[in-house]
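Following up on my earlier thread - several people asked me to post the actual chain instead of describing it. Fair enough. Here it is, all 279 residues.
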Amino acid sequence: MHVLRRSQRRRKRAPYGRRLGIITADFSLYYKAHRLLSERGVLVYHGLPQDPIPPDVCVVITTEKEANEVDHPVKVVVRDDAPLEKYIEMAIALLDSRGNPEHIVIGIDPGEYPGFVVLSNGRILNAKNLKKPEDVGSEVRFFLKKYSPKTCVIKIGNLGGIYLYRILRSLLGIDVKVEIVNEYSTSFKLRKTSDILAAIRIAMRQGREISIDEELNKMKIPEGVLRDIQRKSRLRSNGRVTISKELALRVALGEMSIEDAIEITLKKTLKNSSCMKTH
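Reply from S.P.:
Thanks for posting it. Predicted structure:
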């Protein structure tokens, strides 16, 4: 009868674990990676390249110089061509699924600078504030390409007003499930510096599935929004001009900045003034 050695028996019995290994003699890398992983709630094992790696360590992070010395089937090799955060995200995604994550949830807190998070199995893969609502579509496309998940759900808070409209327009043509989350019923709506926290909570709530086309057709730009943009144009131009409602609508839809609308109006006003003097 063939008897397994002790090490073989232990390896065969070991279940799939939740630890991520940092295998390197570069202690600067270790401390930076350990801090980033701890912030995300990931259990960490540290070892040197020549050390045996415990069987519950499913993914390891190491350096390009040490990669060939590390005996592990799933390695994330850190190079100098990108921020460490990129490799941390990659390692977490691999840890979550022992491959690319099969299911991701994208949470969006709509606003002038939308909160944007990507979750897999409840773990944060990415979290950031975007520069404008129109960036949501390109970010979603980037992460779909990066992870190639089997399923993806985009969950968006319902209190975004015109920003929600602009976000939905940016998502046209992306074939994923989209849900609108009722933030009134959650009592967690946080503003200003908490957009990312709000996006995380939105991602973790059940929403109402929508058709983007139908939702956009139902939405109207409130007159109050246009009047407010016109008011801001007066303030920013020191009372020289008030932009038209048509230009205010284009500003609201993100098609132009309020500064561009003011400049167009000023040029038109100067031109009309010159024509009147000529006549």
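Residues 1-17, 186-193 have pLDDT under 50 and may be disordered. That should answer part of your original question.
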